[in-house]
């Protein structure tokens, strides 16, 4: 009966695989038959993804209420309805709804199917039986590939392909009657009836308890690496990679067919079933990371080699593809699902697994569009190299963090996790600080995207609208002008309405600015729209810094304040990926601007559960609310922290702009404004706003090469920012910023020298300048780019933190406005070499000033820093 139940539940996996696998061929054929473009295909595909995300979230909660078996039966009905509706769809709108229904079923089955199997399986074979569900998924994908091959040239064949999904759905609906309910779920229902509880609200019944969030963090991390190790991109490129390699073996297959990959996927998954309960989860996962990295590296090397030697290069790339698929299928494919159903807390496992499955679909939705980036072999080789680096990172991360659950009963795993959570609770946990900071600093992604997409779009705008240097500068400068206005307003608004509410209000402004920019009929309308986006950034950026500084323990304040720079870097990378995607599209800049509307909406939703700053609440006299928030942050000595907040501002009263000019506060203001001046005129804004223009001046005139190179600089910025997270609270602020200014000065002097000797566009000297520019970006991200923002958020006493931070950021915006408006003229008149030298001199002077006047704020509370200025 056990194996029959597993086989029936695995039918859901077969449907999961078939519906996701058949979509590419069937939907492309449908959209092409209706004469629609690729954006219609993207819309229909998005319907499946949105449905899967919703289905995963709801099914987990529902399975905790009505049981796993009933949800599986309901899912079979949804599969049937979606398959038949898609097969007879008369229009793109009906097909979208049908795929939405199928998506709900796929998402629900992805959460409930593995959960049910894990709860009925004995400990000694649980890994193999849950992996059997993954095998069913791969068989479904293989069937989908076969259907794509068979119906490829059949008129209207896509209808048959979609309708075929109803057959296993009807079989599942009938066979599910034979399933018995999960014994673990029945035991939980009995326990709840005896206690009169429904498992809500307290202790380990919450997915956000220490035990719950540890499990969620591990599982979500696994699914992040599963999706971002490159599986979607590699499978997307696989047919073109293998088009010169014949795998037909007399079977009628065409070169480039994906069917051989599906066969390898199935065989490797069968191997995983045989090994997972013998070798263990951890060794298989680590081997999978290494094999995937090797396959990606081999595929990338083959693509690079194929430029000069097409035959051997393609064979090498094809071998890399097969190695990657086999390595992925043996570990990274099944083990995240096995881990999720093993380590999520028993009392809320349905809800927790639903959240984890939803993260899978979210990451899939983000990672899949990246597969559309890069059309030529060198670009693909570079993308594969990045993915190989991600795989290696995953190996080292999970070598330390992944627990082995082979042969352990679910109750034993749960008891061990509960004991570890209790020990962490006794030591005190900083998880809430990290989680809240991660959520609030997602605004940095919007900031980075909007700045970088402006730099990318300006190239297309200049071409489409024939903009001169003044108009190009105006497009960038209006963004910065709005930024200046928002920055000056932010402090007063944050003190008046609170940090959290002010941040929430900016989300709507981001969305409106995105659509107004995309739909702009004229240059004037575009300037107004970009000013609105700048206003949102100007309000959000300093307010985020104030909020994070006020919730952070002094020991990790620098690290948490660096989060926004990391998300900023991710936003810049996203912008250049979007830029590369739409670069060849007519009026592609409109799509570039519109893209950020969806992340902006998500940003607003992410802010809803966040608490208000406890220091702001205390400043308003709302001590009970401040005490409540401190408890939410797992603060062990609430009374002491609250007393520190109150004594940190003895006679300062309510802050005002007039207080900034007092004798005590003037040196703080000068330091804050100087740091912001240096951030702009160290040369960073040259890269931030004009990187594509700068590369064009160096000699990279091809737009795609230009954008890809700029994307590489953004990756350097992000990597250096992530490194800075680990050192900013160890090395200290002052040594980092002073040494960084000196090193950046050296880079700029070298750039000036190389520019003078560059004789050939795109030659050795030009690439050497790109390398030095990358070093400059890395040094900035490690030092001044982080430390400047951190120190400005730290140095102002509570009473003037709002106006002081606002003034500093406002002045930075004015500096940037002047910079962006004049930079095109400067390089036209003075030349690039002299421009580099002038920034180098500014950096040396700035290093001397900060060495003399900047205090060290590392490991000091905000109240200690305020006391330093008073006693100075």
TrEMBL record:
<feature type="transmembrane region" description="Helical">
    <location>
        <begin position="96"/>
        <end position="116"/>
    </location>
</feature>
<dbReference type="GO" id="GO:0016020">
    <property type="term" value="C:membrane"/>
</dbReference>
<feature type="transmembrane region" description="Helical">
    <location>
        <begin position="766"/>
        <end position="788"/>
    </location>
</feature>
<feature type="transmembrane region" description="Helical">
    <location>
        <begin position="317"/>
        <end position="340"/>
    </location>
</feature>
<keyword id="KW-0813">Transport</keyword>
<feature type="transmembrane region" description="Helical">
    <location>
        <begin position="215"/>
        <end position="238"/>
    </location>
</feature>
<feature type="transmembrane region" description="Helical">
    <location>
        <begin position="588"/>
        <end position="610"/>
    </location>
</feature>
<feature type="transmembrane region" description="Helical">
    <location>
        <begin position="527"/>
        <end position="549"/>
    </location>
</feature>
<feature type="transmembrane region" description="Helical">
    <location>
        <begin position="668"/>
        <end position="691"/>
    </location>
</feature>
<dbReference type="InterPro" id="IPR005829">
    <property type="entry name" value="Sugar_transporter_CS"/>
</dbReference>
<feature type="transmembrane region" description="Helical">
    <location>
        <begin position="501"/>
        <end position="521"/>
    </location>
</feature>
<feature type="transmembrane region" description="Helical">
    <location>
        <begin position="352"/>
        <end position="375"/>
    </location>
</feature>
<feature type="transmembrane region" description="Helical">
    <location>
        <begin position="283"/>
        <end position="305"/>
    </location>
</feature>
<dbReference type="InterPro" id="IPR005828">
    <property type="entry name" value="MFS_sugar_transport-like"/>
</dbReference>
<feature type="domain" description="Major facilitator superfamily (MFS) profile">
    <location>
        <begin position="5"/>
        <end position="406"/>
    </location>
</feature>
<keyword id="KW-0472">Membrane</keyword>
<dbReference type="Pfam" id="PF00083">
    <property type="entry name" value="Sugar_tr"/>
</dbReference>
<feature type="transmembrane region" description="Helical">
    <location>
        <begin position="833"/>
        <end position="851"/>
    </location>
</feature>
<feature type="transmembrane region" description="Helical">
    <location>
        <begin position="258"/>
        <end position="276"/>
    </location>
</feature>
<feature type="transmembrane region" description="Helical">
    <location>
        <begin position="735"/>
        <end position="754"/>
    </location>
</feature>
<feature type="transmembrane region" description="Helical">
    <location>
        <begin position="711"/>
        <end position="728"/>
    </location>
</feature>
<dbReference type="InterPro" id="IPR020846">
    <property type="entry name" value="MFS_dom"/>
</dbReference>
<feature type="transmembrane region" description="Helical">
    <location>
        <begin position="474"/>
        <end position="494"/>
    </location>
</feature>
<feature type="transmembrane region" description="Helical">
    <location>
        <begin position="128"/>
        <end position="146"/>
    </location>
</feature>
<dbReference type="InterPro" id="IPR003663">
    <property type="entry name" value="Sugar/inositol_transpt"/>
</dbReference>
<feature type="domain" description="Major facilitator superfamily (MFS) profile">
    <location>
        <begin position="436"/>
        <end position="858"/>
    </location>
</feature>
<feature type="transmembrane region" description="Helical">
    <location>
        <begin position="381"/>
        <end position="398"/>
    </location>
</feature>
<dbReference type="GO" id="GO:0022857">
    <property type="term" value="F:transmembrane transporter activity"/>
</dbReference>
<feature type="transmembrane region" description="Helical">
    <location>
        <begin position="158"/>
        <end position="179"/>
    </location>
</feature>
<feature type="transmembrane region" description="Helical">
    <location>
        <begin position="71"/>
        <end position="90"/>
    </location>
</feature>
<feature type="transmembrane region" description="Helical">
    <location>
        <begin position="434"/>
        <end position="462"/>
    </location>
</feature>
<feature type="transmembrane region" description="Helical">
    <location>
        <begin position="40"/>
        <end position="59"/>
    </location>
</feature>
<comment type="similarity">
    <text>Belongs to the major facilitator superfamily. Sugar transporter (TC 2.A.1.1) family.</text>
</comment>
<dbReference type="InterPro" id="IPR050814">
    <property type="entry name" value="Myo-inositol_Transporter"/>
</dbReference>
<protein>
    <submittedName>
        <fullName>Sugar porter (SP) family MFS transporter</fullName>
    </submittedName>
</protein>
<feature type="transmembrane region" description="Helical">
    <location>
        <begin position="809"/>
        <end position="827"/>
    </location>
</feature>
<dbReference type="InterPro" id="IPR036259">
    <property type="entry name" value="MFS_trans_sf"/>
</dbReference>
<feature type="transmembrane region" description="Helical">
    <location>
        <begin position="561"/>
        <end position="582"/>
    </location>
</feature>
<keyword id="KW-0812">Transmembrane</keyword>
<keyword id="KW-1133">Transmembrane helix</keyword>
């Amino acid at each position: 009966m056990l194996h029959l139940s597993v086989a029936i539940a695995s039918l859901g996996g077969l449907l999961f695989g078939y519906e996701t696998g058949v979509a590419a061929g069937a939907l492309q054929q449908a959209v092409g038959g209706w004469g629609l473009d690729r954006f219609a295909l993207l819309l229909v595909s998005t319907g499946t993804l949105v449905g899967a995300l919703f289905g995963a979230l709801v099914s987990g909660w529902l399975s905790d209420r009505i049981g796993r078996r009933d949800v599986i039966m309901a899912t079979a009905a949804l599969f049937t309805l979606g398959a038949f509706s898609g097969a007879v769809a008369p229009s793109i709108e009906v097909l979208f709804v049908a795929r939405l229904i199928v998506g709900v079923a796929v998402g629900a089955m992805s959460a409930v199917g593995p959960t049910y199997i894990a709860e009925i399986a004995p400990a000694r074979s649980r890994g193999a039986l849950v992996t059997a569900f993954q095998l069913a998924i791969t068989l479904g994908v293989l069937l989908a590939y076969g259907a794509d091959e068979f119906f490829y040239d059949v008129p209207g064949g896509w209808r048959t392909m979609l309708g075929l999904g109803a057959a296993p759905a009807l079989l599942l609906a009938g066979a599910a009657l034979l399933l018995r309910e999960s014994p673990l779920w029945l035991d939980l229902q009995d326990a709840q009836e005896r206690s009169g509880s429904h498992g809500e609200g307290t202790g380990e019944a919450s997915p956000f308890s220490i035990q719950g969030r540890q499990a969620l963090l591990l599982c979500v991390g696994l699914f992040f690496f599963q999706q971002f190790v490159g599986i979607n991109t590699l499978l997307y490129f696989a047919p073109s990679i293998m088009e010169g390699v014949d795998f037909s073996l007399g079977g009628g297959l065409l070169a480039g067919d994906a069917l051989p990959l599906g066969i390898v996927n199935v065989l490797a998954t069968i191997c995983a079933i045989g090994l997972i309960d013998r070798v263990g989860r951890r060794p298989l996962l680590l081997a999978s990371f290494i094999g995937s990295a090797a396959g990606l590296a081999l595929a990338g090397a083959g693509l690079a080699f194929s430029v000069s030697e097409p035959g051997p290069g393609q064979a090498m790339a094809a071998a890399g593809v097969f190695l990657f698929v086999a390595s992925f299928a043996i570990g990274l494919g099944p083990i995240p699902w096995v881990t999720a159903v093993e380590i999520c807390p028993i009392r809320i496992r349905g809800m927790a697994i639903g959240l984890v499955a939803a993260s899978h679909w979210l990451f899939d939705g983000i990672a899949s569009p990246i597969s559309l980036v890069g059309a030529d072999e060198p670009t693909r080789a570079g993308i594969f190299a990045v993915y190989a680096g991600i795989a290696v990172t995953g190996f080292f991360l999970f070598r330390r963090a992944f627990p082995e659950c082979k042969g352990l009963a679910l109750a034993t795993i749960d008891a061990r996790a509960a004991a570890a959570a209790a020990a962490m609770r006794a030591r005190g946990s900083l998880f809430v600080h990290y989680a809240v900071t991660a959520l609030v600093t997602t605004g940095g992604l919007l900031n980075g995207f909007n700045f970088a997409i402006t730099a990318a779009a300006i190239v297309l705008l200049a071409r489409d609208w024939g903009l001169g240097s003044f108009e190009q500068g105006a497009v960038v400068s209006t963004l910065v002008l709005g930024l200046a206005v928002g920055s000056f307003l932010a402090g007063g608004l944050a003190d008046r309405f609170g940090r959290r509410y002010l941040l929430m209000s900016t989300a709507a402004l981001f969305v409106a600015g995105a659509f107004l920019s995309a739909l702009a009929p004229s240059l004037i309308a575009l300037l107004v729209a970009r000013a609105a986006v700048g206003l949102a950034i100007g309000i959000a950026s300093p307010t985020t810094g104030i909020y994070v500084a006020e919730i952070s323990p002094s020991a990790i304040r620098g690290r948490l304040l660096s989060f926004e720079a990391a998300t900023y870097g991710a936003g810049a990378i996203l912008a250049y990926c979007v830029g590369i995607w739409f670069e060849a599209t007519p009026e592609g800049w409109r799509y570039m601007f519109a893209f950020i509307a969806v992340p902006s909406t998500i940003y607003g939703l992410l802010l809803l559960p966040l608490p208000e700053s406890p220091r702001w609440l205390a400043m308003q006299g709302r001590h009970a609310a401040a005490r409540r928030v401190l408890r939410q942050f797992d603060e062990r000595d609430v009374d002491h922290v609250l007393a520190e907040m109150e004594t940190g501002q003895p006679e300062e009263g309510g802050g005002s702009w007039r207080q900034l000019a007092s004798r005590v506060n003037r040196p703080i203001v000068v330091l804050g404004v100087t740091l912001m001046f240096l951030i702009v005129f160290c040369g960073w804004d040259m890269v931030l706003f004009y990187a594509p223009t700068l590369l064009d001046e160096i000699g990279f005139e091809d737009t795609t090469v230009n954008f890809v190179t700029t994307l590489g600089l953004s990756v350097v910025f992000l990597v250096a920012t992530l490194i800075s997270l680990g050192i900013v609270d160890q090395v200290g602020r002052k040594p980092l910023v002073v040494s960084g200014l000196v090193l950046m000065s050296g880079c700029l002097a070298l750039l000036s020298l190389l520019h003078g000797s560059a004789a050939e566009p795109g030659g050795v000297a030009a690439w050497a300048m790109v390398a030095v520019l990358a070093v400059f970006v890395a040094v900035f991200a490690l030092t001044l780019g982080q430390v400047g923002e951190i120190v400005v958020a730290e140095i102002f006493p509570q009473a003037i933190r709002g106006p002081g931070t606002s003034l500093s950021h406002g002045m930075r915006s004015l500096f940037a406005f002047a910079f962006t408006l004049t930079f095109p003229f400067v390089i036209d008149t003075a030349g690039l070499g002299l421009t580099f030298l002038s920034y180098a001199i500014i950096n040396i002077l700035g290093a001397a000033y900060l060495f003399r006047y900047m205090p060290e704020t590392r490991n000091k509370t905000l109240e200690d820093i305020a006391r330093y200025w008073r006693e100075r």
